[in-house]
Write a structure and sequence with these properties.
Layout: E1 22-26, H1 31-40, E2 45-50, E3 62-65, E4 73-76, E5 81-85, H2 93-105, E6 110-113, H3 129-156, H4 160-165, E7 169-173, H5 188-208, E8 214-220, H6 229-241, E9 248-252, E10 255-258
Parallel strand pairs: 1-2, 1-6, 2-5, 6-7, 7-8, 8-9
Antiparallel strand pairs: 3-4, 9-10
Helix pairs in contact: 1-6, 2-3, 3-5
Length: 259
């Protein structure tokens, strides 16, 4: 029997089976995080990090019914989701999140940063614009950076061959707002935070390549209004399973493009 690279801590691995990869997912109780757990909980062991709202977990076996085609049902198998409540705006919580993931599963193969805040502000109004923009920059750009750096220092660094073998990567969820101007809807701060996230991701990709890590952003249009939440989840999974590095996958109603 081959040597294991990691000890199985989840209780779900047969001694002769290859354990599922581990995904650390933030924003797990939101619309996107919930859907990702539903659709990809069979492909990953998920560390689902949430703030105040608990994570919804499907039953061991459940069915997804397409609301636009009620006759189509998708079987959803049991999930291996470990949930953790954490306030990621507190820098002291970042090491705790990494501790939990490594103690629970012994490894992290994919970091998906989906936690975000969006506050609509007017640059000409009376709102405390700087405070709102600072909060969005911190949660939407700095928190993903803190998690990535902490993981690199605690686990990924020094494992170049192993990282490449497991195709380990970071997928940061951005927005088309970080690439285009949408006029008169108060997205200046949100857009700035998402643009910052993408540029930080490009630099992570450049520097983390030295130890076999990839980093990319998935930038969807508004969901589920203009693109489906499932399509965003699928885009995250495709990017994670692929080989691109330092890129942004734009997800629009007309299709996808890479920049």
């Amino acid at each position: 029997m081959g040597r294991r690279l990691h000890r199985p801590l989840g209780g779900d691995d047969d001694m002769n089976a290859t354990p599922l990869p581990v995904c650390l997912l933030t924003g797990a109780s939101g619309r996107l995080g919930t859907r990702f757990c539903e659709l990809y909980g069979h492909r990953y062991r998920i560390v689902a990090v949430h703030c105040s709202r608990p994570v919804h977990q499907p039953a061991e076996v459940s069915w997804h019914i397409d609301p636009f085609n009620p006759g189509v049902r998708q079987r959803i198998e049991g999930r291996n989701v470990a949930t953790l409540q954490a306030d990621l705006s507190d820098p002291a919580q970042i090491p705790r999140v990494i501790d939990f993931a490594l103690e629970r599963f012994g490894r992290v193969d994919l970091l998906v940063n989906a936690a975000a805040i969006c506050r609509h502000v007017s640059l000409t109004g009376g709102d405390p614009v700087a405070d709102h923009v600072t909060a969005m920059l911190d949660m939407n750009a700095v928190v993903p950076l803190r998690l990535a750096v902490e993981l690199s220092q605690r686990f990924w660094r020094g494992r170049s061959g192993e990282n490449a073998a497991f195709n380990r990567s970071i997928v940061n969820v951005s927005s088309t707002s970080g690439a285009f101007i949408y006029s008169n809807i108060g997205q200046s701060g949100y857009a700035a935070s998402k643009a910052a996230l993408h540029m930080l991701t490009c630099h992570l990709a450049d520097e983390f390549a030295a130890f076999g890590l990839r980093a990319n952003t998935v930038a969807p249009d508004s969901f589920p209004e203009r693109v489906t939440t499932a399509s965003v989840c699928d885009a995250i999974a495709r990017v994670a399973a692929g080989d691109m590095n330092g890129k942004m996958l734009l997800l629009e109603p007309s299709g996808t493009s890479v920049v």
